[in-house]
Specification:
With 392 residues, the chain is α+β, with helices and mostly antiparallel strands. Helix content is 27%, strand content 34%. The protein folds into 3 domains: 7-121, no CATH class; 128-314, Jelly Rolls; 318-391, Phage tail protein beta-alpha-beta fold (3-Layer(bab) Sandwich), CATH 3.55.50.30. The strands form 3 sheets. It has a 19-stranded mixed beta sheet that branches. It has a 3-stranded mixed beta sheet with strand order 21-24-23, covered by helices on one side. It has a two-stranded antiparallel sheet with strand order 20-22. The relative contact order is 0.08.
Length: 392
């Protein structure tokens, strides 16, 4: 009667055989399974190959062909080798194939385990609502730690924090319009505020906004931005709203737009969602319509193109959207949001990635987007913070 073999048990034995830890009884069982089939149809335990029977038959056919060819002398006389010898060679080759498939399977399991360990090691939390507010008199307020309610009062202005974590400026009387406040988000931080004219601002990570505590008595509402911010400007035809960055100025009356002016991006991108804006850089002037964006390059050339609105506005919706983005472009966003330094070792693939990730996910989940690339990540804690090392 044919002995029955359990695939799950055979898979266990295969692992132990690879490790050299089979007991005498287990070795006997494993040998019995192998010897039972000899030169017949052989089914390996699931997981060692997509179709091991096909591999075996192809190898056996090649062996027979090569053996018969090598047995033909220079004369026309043909010498046929005994089939038993062919079977012995085929069985030995098959055993080599089994060993290779088991080795491949075990190696793949180890690699998967290493990836899981790597993911656990880089389980960095995402950014959150945090910023520092500096008042005109030099006082600083940690907005992450401050309780909801009134934060400060200065020259007819009340500054408060809502339960949702937004800073709100409210005019309470006459005020000194020369007082300048500054709100600054760190890497791994973001914040929202409502200016005295009811303009709403979303400030992205590693960004700074300077603005007057009140716009009263001013011909224009002027603020200065470094980093990235999304504006919903309150309409006031008599007082245009001006956003100044290092190399350009955006003038609007009332509209929704985003400005990305990070120094490490090498360009300033202004994307218009609603309304109309006037972008001025040096002697160049461009008017944007909804769905367009201006790009100010390092050579101070100003151009206009149709915007990828999903990517430009994604961060305001707690997303990162990439359309044919390179590794370094993606890593700059990740570094700012997860408060990391990035170090590259070796050649980094120049492949591009398209996809959407949730900014509320931890770093390990976000890095899964690189699964198709030959990239490895290591996280190190340095005296100044966390460093993500990227190498092939």
């Amino acid at each position: 009667m044919e002995k029955q073999f359990d695939d799950a048990y055979l898979q266990l034995l295969a692992h132990k055989w690879k490790e050299g830890s089979l007991s005498p009884e287990e070795q006997e069982h494993f040998d019995a399974w192998y010897n039972q089939y000899q030169d017949e149809h052989l089914e390996l335990p699931e997981g060692y190959a997509k179709d091991p029977a096909v591999i075996r038959e192809r190898m056996l056919a090649r062996l027979r062909e090569r053996i018969e060819q090598s047995a033909v002398p220079a004369t026309t006389k043909t010498v046929k080798l005994p089939m038993r010898w062919i079977s012995i060679v085929a069985a030995a080759s098959l055993f080599i194939i089994i060993g290779f498939l088991i080795y491949s399977y075990v190696r793949r399991q180890k690699e998967d385990h290493a990836i899981q360990q790597q993911s656990a090691a880089i389980n960095v939390a995402p950014g959150s609502n945090k910023a520092m507010l500096t008042l005109a008199d030099g006082r600083t307020i940690n907005l992450q730690e401050a309780a909801a309610g009134e934060l400060a009062a200065q020259s007819g202005i009340r500054i408060s924090k809502t339960a949702e974590g937004q800073v709100v400026y409210t005019v309470t009387g006459s005020n000194d319009h020369s007082e300048i406040n500054t709100i600054k988000t760190p890497k791994g931080g973001q914040y929202r505020l409502r200016l005295p004219d009811n303009t709403e601002v979303w400030l992205n990570a590693a960004s700074t906004l300077q603005y007057p505590a009140s716009f009263n008595g001013r011909d224009e509402r002027s603020v200065t931005l470094s980093g990235e911010a999304y504006f919903r400007v309150a309409k006031d035809k008599a007082h245009p709203f001006i956003v100044k960055t290092k190399d350009q100025a955006i003038k609007v009356l009332g509209t929704h737009f985003n400005i990305n002016s990070y120094s490490d991006e090498g360009k300033t991108v202004t994307t218009l969602e609603e309304g109309s804006v006037q972008v001025k850089a040096g002697a160049e002037l461009k008017i944007l319509r909804p769905g367009e964006q201006s790009i100010l390059g390092g050579n101070n050339s100003l151009s206009v193109r149709q915007a990828d609105m999903s990517a430009a506005m994604a961060w305001t919706k707690n997303e990162m959207v990439f359309n044919d983005a390179g590794v370094q472009e993606i890593m700059r966003q990740i570094a700012r949001w997860y408060d990391l330094d990035i170090e590259y070792q070796g050649r980094i693939p120049d492949d591009t990635i398209s996809g959407t990730v949730d900014r509320r996910e931890n770093l390990a989940a976000v890095l899964k987007m690189f699964a198709t690339m030959q990239i490895h990540f290591t996280l190190e804690q340095t005296p100044t913070g966390k460093k993500l090392i990227i190498k092939p």
